[in-house]
Every structure is written in structure tokens, then in C-alpha cells.
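Teaching assistant here, posting this on the class forum so everyone can see the example we discussed in section. The complex has two components, and the goal was to see what a joint structure prediction looks like when all of them are supplied at once.
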Amino acid sequence: MSVAQALKAVLKAYVKAELLRSKGFVIGIFSLMLWLVMFLAPTALFRSPQVSPEVISAYALVAIAVFVSYSTATWDWAWELRWLMYQGILEHVLLSGESVFVLFAGVLPVSLIWLALTITGSYALLTSLIAQPLLRIAEPLPLALGIITLGVVLIAYALLLGGVTISTGTSGPVIELIGWVLPIATGGLTPLSTLPEAIQVIALATPFSYPAELIRYGLGLSPPILDPDLTCAVGVLYAAAFLCFAVIFFKLQLKKILKEGVKTVAMY
Amino acid sequence: MLKAEFTFVYADVFRRKTILMMFIVYPYIITAFIMLIGTSLGSPQVFTEKVGVDPVPFFIVSSFILISVLGVVDDILWRPIFDEWMGTLPYVISSPTSRVLHYFAIPIPRLTLVLISGSATVFPVLAYYYGLMGLTKATSVLLLALLSSVLLTTLAMLIAGLVFTLAGESWRVLNIIRPLLLILLGAFYPRYMMPLVAQAMSWLIPSSHTVELMQRLLIGAGVSSSYALMLLGIGIGLAIAYTPLGDRSVRRWERKKLLEGVST
């Protein structure tokens, strides 16, 4: 089977399973909306009357967008490998000689549709709960770089997490914990300027903080704590280096399981 | 039954210590999550003026309630699905045990984990904020959280039976019901600040009354003993009222499984 045929087959399978046949797609979005309402509704109690609700809503939307992007990378991309291993599909892919990355070509469009719908739903939710988010493109280049580097960093993160998962059989709660801590600790949810200095240092040492800072700057919400040009340059270089490292690491883990065999995984 | 449940739960806890870690770490993570977003949107002082309590102790208690209730409710809602997956459902259905006792036995081992979680989260934070008075408050919170979890048992039976009878053993549907139940519980957004319709729905949940009591105790504005007793009474009364409904609901689902057969 050629790579193109493999790509088509995988994409068709995911579209059929996730978009057409399963109600999970719709239910998943609805469920996520409810969780977001639960955690975001109390944050409205922090709002002082002097601050415009539209600005508050915009901050919340960016925080949600970053959080669900991390969630997609964790559960759709990294966890999908574990799920494939659980179902015995991963071994077939490895034996077929095809690249494992072919699988991601099928997941990616479905994930992006899910992501777009979730962000649109969050926009509607915030509009009804707080106010219409005030979104404007203040700095187009940093915004574009922020979105691109966020994608690159998350792919790298998914490869690292997926690599560790398939080689060690990491459990669900650990993955869930990482999915919560990472966006909080790296300035994904709030501008770095509002975080304590110690967390700022930690966040800047990771590649995750730069895309979120650039997106917020691009939307005119808050300036990055470093110089904007420096944030762009470091963000791009760090994202590229992180991706290279993640690809190498992932390939090493695949080699490891080819030598040692696929790990047995429990349900969670 | 209790011995079997304890063995079942603790075998898992000792095998995978991350479960225990989750019970302790999650309240802190959720509090940090809400505090970070909240402070970037406004200020803790505004929260204190509106709610009457500092946000950190408020949200550590809210997150602890969430973990306690989820630890118990999840066990009940998911157990029929796990039983089917594990192949133990035919034995459970054919057993002559009282369903009410069986479902009350399920969450009890988890309640001991709730105690550990409360000791590692609510106690230190409330002691830090309120000193010795904080320890008294934390003890009340812990006891009320245990009660809140137990009071949800019969409603969880009713929901599980209804969902599984109408929609099959669908964990996806449960994933909508769980957050909805938690929102209406009012742990994160006090129910007395909710819109009227949501308040009315919240009143139907037994534990929402004990959660309100916890929050009023935390605010420290004083809650009269008659009001406290009324909240406790309504909560316990509702839980008792749901008992026959929950039992009937579970048995109806079991009859459906007997007709359809259990998937293996």
C-alpha cells in the first residue's frame, strides 16, 4: 500500500468512526462545555466592575483555547497511541512497515474539527455567561507565529508523551495530571506577568510559554514579559528544536518496543 | 460485602499509588487553576467582597468536595459498566443481596480515601488561614463532605438505573450527567447565587444542602442552628426519599439485562 493510500484509509476510518458513526464527538463537546462552565463560572466572581466584561471574556477564551489545545495533544494524539496499543492495532502498523505518523494524518483533521467546534462553543458560552469576547488582531505577525508555534510545540509534546506512554505503559491519572499542570505552570492560561516570579522563570525555560504569550500579544490582550521581537525569535527557535528532539525521542522509543516488545496496558 | 469492597478498592490503590496521589493533589491543582484564571480576570478582594470568604480556602473546600463526591458517585455510576466489562455482572444480578446495601457498600472504601484527602488539603489550608478555628472548620467540612458523598448514593442509583435502562451502559452519557450534577451541587458557584431555575434543580440534590451548610460555615457570618438542622434534614430526607426509587430503577435495568443478556 502506498503512503497516499494508507493516509486515505486512515483518514476515512477516523472520519467514519469519530464524526459519522459515534455520538461521542457531540457528547464529548457538550461534556467539555459543562466542565468549563463549572470551573469558569466562579472566576466571574473575581471581576471588578471597572474591568470591561468583554476583555474578561477574551482572556477566558484564550485560556480555554490553549487548555483544549493541550487536551487535544494529550488525549487525541498521545493517548491515541496507547489506545491503539490496547486494541492491538499499533503492532500491526509497526509490522506493516508503515510509519506510525500515518496514523496521525488521520487523527489530525478530526482533532482540528473538534478543536474548532469546542472553541466556537466556548465563544458562545462566554458570550451568554459573561459578554462577547473582545477579539481583535492587534499584531498579525506575532499572532500567526503564536498559533503556528503552539501547533509545533503541541505536536512535539504529544510525541514525547506518546513515546513515554508506549514504552512504559504510563497510567491515565498521570497523563491527566500532566494535562492540568502543564498549561497552568507554563503561562498557558494567564499572562506570565500575572504569575509569581519563580513560575515565570520556570515557564520561560520551557517552549510552552512563548506561543501563549505571542497569541495574547497578537490579540492585544497583554504584552509579553520579554521584548516582543525576542519572544518571537526564541519562540520559533525553541519550538523547532523541541520538535526535532521529540521526533528523535519518539523514534528511539519505537526502536525500544521493537526490541523489548509492546508493553501490556491496563484499562486506565 | 464491605470486606470485599475494601479488598477490591485497596488492592487497586496499593497497586497504583497514583490514585491516592490524585485524591491529594487534585484539590490543589483545581484551586490553582481557578485562582490563576480568577486573578487574571479580576482580584481576590472582589471575590471576598462578593462571597464573604477568601477565595483560597473557599476553592480548596470546593475542590475537596468535588473529589470526594466524584470518588463516590463515579464508583456507583460506573460500577455496572465495569461489572459488564469484567464479566462479573451476571453474578451481581443473580445475587440475592439487597441492592440498596450493595450500592451503599460500594463507596465506603473510597470514603477512607476522602478522609486522607481532607487531612492533606482542607486541614492545612484552613489552619493556615484561620488558625485553631480553622481546624474546627476543617473538621466540620470533612464530616459534612463524608455525609454529602453518602447522601448521593441513592440519587446515583436512580440516575444509573435510568441512564442504563434508557441509553444502555453508556459512559458517554454519564460524562454529561457528572458535570451537570456537580454544577448543580453548587460547590464552586454557591447555589444561593445561582439563577432561580438552577437553584430549584439544585434543591432536588440531597448533597447540595450539606454543601450549602459547609459554605455558610466557612463564610463565618454565622448560620443559625435551626437553619443548619433544616439543611441537614432536607438533605437526609431527600436521600431517604430517593431510596425506593433508586432500588426500583436499578432493578428495572437489571430486568432489562436479563431479557437482553449480558455482553461478554
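For the discussion questions: Residues 132-167 of chain B form the longest helix (36 residues). Chain B has one domain: 2-260. Think about how each of these relates to the inputs above.
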